[in-house]
Amino acid sequence: MSWIDELKIAILNKDDEKVLNLIEDLPKFDNIDDLICARELVGEFIKKLQKDRDSLSKSMIKLKQMRFFLED
After folding, report:
1. pLDDT at residue 19 above 90?
2. pLDDT tens digits, one per residue of 26-67
3. Which domain, by its residues, includes 33?
4. Cα–Cα distance between 64 and 56 in angstroms, integer?
5. Backbone angles phi, psi at 48, to 5 degrees
């Protein structure tokens, strides 16, 4: 199975750890099409991580607000 196929499967399965491991072991690509595809997949994964970070930040703010409310 090719690196790109493994990356696609890991992204579809939402296996962030596997995606990160694959990105760390980035192969040398034989053609420009594979390189462009890899760039797009990694870019989409970065956007997903940013959304996750923003969601987590909002959740943390809500929890702090609830804790403050309950402590009063």
Report:
1. yes
2. 999 999 999 999 999 999 999 999 999 999 999 999 999 999
3. 3-71
4. 12
5. -65, -45
Q: Hey, how many other C-beta atoms are within 10 angstroms of the C-beta on 65?
A: 10
Report CA-CA distances (Å) from 64 to 34, 47, 52: 45, 26, 18
Q: What's the domain count of the chain?
A: 1
DSSP of 21-65, one letter per residue?
A: HHHHTPPPPSSHHHHHHHHHHHHHHHHHHHHHHHHHHHHHHHHHH
- Is the pTM value of this prediction over 0.85? no
Measured from the Cβ of residue 26, the count of other Cβ atoms closer than 10 Å reads: 12
Long-range contacts formed by 36-39: CB under 8 A, 24+ apart: 37/4, 38/3, 38/4, 38/7
Q: Using the structure block, give the residue that is written with the tokens 């969601």.
A: 55
